[in-house]
Structures are given as structure tokens and as C-alpha cells.
Amino acid sequence: MLAAVCRSNGRRDHRLVGESPLVAGGLIAKTPDPQDGRSQLLAPTRRGRDTLSRIRRERTALLARRSTRLTPEQCRALEAALPLLELLLDEPDAPVREGHDGPNDR
């Protein structure tokens, strides 16, 4: 979720969020990490979540419009891929620790 909010504001690297307008703009909140004093936890604010919801609605509408161009075969292929895509979307969002790369941030 954080990465999507970052991308919506022209940022590609969520590790730089502390130096970006995301915090200043009220989209991301920073709190001290109680387990690691060197780090801060980042989480979307209400405004950030609202922004993300708007972006998702706009993308859904765009995909719906563009899907009308697909052939029946392409529609079946897309339908077959939906369970995998839903699996990826069902992963819970976890707070991101600023300043420390996670295993997937390389």
C-alpha cells in the first residue's frame, strides 16, 4: 500500500519517504519503532488511505473500459489468472521500517 501511495506522488522508492512530500502532505505518518530505536514505522494516514482508494477506483474504471477490447480468448486467460492476482492482493499490509531494507527491498 505504501508503495502505491509513493508512486501516486511520483516517488519510486518508499525508503526515501522521510525526505519526500508524503509526510509533509499528510499521506504518511512516521512513528518511532519501539523495537528498534534507529528506525521509524511508516503507515498511511486517513488522507493517504483515501488517496489510495481513489487511485484504485480510477484504475478499476480504466481496466473496465480497456477490457472491452479483449478477445474472448484473452478474457478467458485473464479470468484464469484472477485467483493468483487475488492471492497477491490478499497479503496484509505491514508497516514499513524507514532506514532498513526488508528482504523484498533489494
Could you give the topology of this structure?
Elements: H1 2-8, H2 21-24, E1 28-32, E2 40-44, H3 46-67, H4 72-89, E3 96-98
Antiparallel strand pairs: 1-2, 2-3
Order of helices and strands: HHEEHHE
* Mean pLDDT level: 80
Approximate helicity band: 40-55%
**Relative strand content:** 5-15%
What structural class do you assign from the helix and strand content? Answer: alpha+beta
CATH superfamily: Winged helix-like DNA-binding domain superfamily/Winged helix DNA-binding domain
So, CATH architecture?
Orthogonal Bundle
Contiguous runs where pLDDT drops below 50 for at least 5 residues: none
Oligomer state of the chains in this structure: single chain
Q: Indicate the CATH class.
A: Mainly Alpha
User: How is the largest sheet built, in terms of strand order?
Assistant: 1-2-3
- CATH topology-level name: Arc Repressor Mutant, subunit A
Number of helices: 4
How can the largest sheet be summarized?
3 strands, antiparallel
Q: Gyration radius, to the nearest Å? A: 17 Å
The number of domains: 1
N-C termini distance: 18 Å
Name the shape in a single word: elongated
How many beta strands in the DSSP annotation? 3
